[in-house]
Amino acid sequence: MMGLMADSPTITLDMSELRAVAAFAVTCARTALKIFEQDRPGDPRSRDAIDAAQTFVDGAKRAKLQRDGAWAALRAAQEARAAGQPAASEAARAAAASCSAAYLHPLAKATQVKHILGSAGYAAHALEIAAGDLPAVGEEHIARFAALATPAVLEVLDRYPAAPPGGARAGALIRLLDTSLR
Fold first, then answer.
1. What is the DSSP letter of 105?
2. Rounded Cα distance, 182 and 31, in Å
3. Residue pair 138/168 in contact by the 8 Å Cβ criterion
């Protein structure tokens, strides 16, 4: 069980649950990786982030590898956005979120839902943009991701409040997934 934080409502989480959440996040992020790699060939940061998250899923301790992977993928997302590659940017954000899933905090805050479902929301948005900004494509991927959520992921999600407002289109997709899973 994870430690409790003072002055915050807490949620009980164990490592097997964190690994289940991270496994879901990795699966979702992998669906959009090809978009990043097509738009940004030779940039390994998104793949490296997903691989770092997979290392945690496979039993490694949470460590600098996941934190560094998340930060590197976020920088890749910023660079892709600056280069006019929004789909690649969202795919990199999905990769960063896969690493962040390992750091889901045991705080009963809506913002923590992004650690659980962020990878799916960003990946769905990347796929939506790549298909020509077709909302139905993003929503179709959200339905596919919902079917991939294991009972362990659902149990963890149910301990948290609903996903928060904001976050533009990726945030809307996260909330759509959140609603469909509850």
1. -
2. 23
3. no
